[in-house]
Amino acid sequence: MRIEKSLLDNYIEQTFVQESLAMKLAKEKALQFNKEGLSISSGEGALLSFLIRLSGAKKIIEIGTFTGYSGLWLLDGTQNLGQLWTFELNENYYNSAKEVFDFANLSAHVNLFLGIAKERLKEIESLGPFDAVFIDANKNSYSLYLDWAFKNLKVNGLVIADNTLLSGLVYDETIKNSLFSKGHIPKMQAFNIDLGTQIHFQSILIPTKEGLSVGIKK
After folding, report:
1. Architecture of domain 19-217
2. What local confidence, expressed as pLDDT, does residue 2 receive?
3. What Cα–Cα distance (Å) separates residue 108 from each residue in 25, 73, 80, 154?
């Protein structure tokens, strides 16, 4: 969850980030829901695009669509030539994301699913293996999604998870005014340990404001 921007955030965005009109529309949709801080920042979006392009990923899973902002960055990393399977629980967010992807003329590259991700993911397993999985949904289910990613990613495929610092709560539970529940702390700590210590991934946590954990499947 991002609300306030630092001077560093502003500098990075002004110097390195170029948003499309569709990305700006996705932000406007988020603002209409009064949830503008729910999406990744534009700097983090550019980082997502960079990681996707660096890896050569073309078949991408996104768990947590919201208004489509991060999905646009993921496709940007494929130069809008890849395929995105993206899952959203909230029907209002789902409809907004559909409008955004239509506006971007990317509907042919987007497979948008409404419903509980852990159930609907089963429907596409036969289409794998996939090149990348981006996790930005129910924090308590991150470890479950990591298990799914391991089973359905190709060797050298990427798993990327957002909010893995929980505003700092994963390493300092005394932090006040966090927008995350303290009930999320043990779940996210377990996720980071799973990704960081298991033999199946080479991984690192990139210290963005909210934390971006990245793993490469061995």
Report:
1. 3-Layer(aba) Sandwich (3.40)
2. 55
3. 19, 16, 10, 23
pTM for this model (two decimals): 0.95
Give the model's pLDDT for residue 69. 98
Q: What is the chain's alpha carbon radius of gyration, rounded to the nearest angstrom?
A: 16
Span 52-107, pLDDT tens digits: 999 999 999 999 999 999 999 999 999 999 999 999 999 999 999 999 999 999 99
Q: Give 134's contacts (C-beta < 8 A, 6+ positions apart).
A: 48, 60, 61, 62, 63, 70, 74, 160, 161, 162
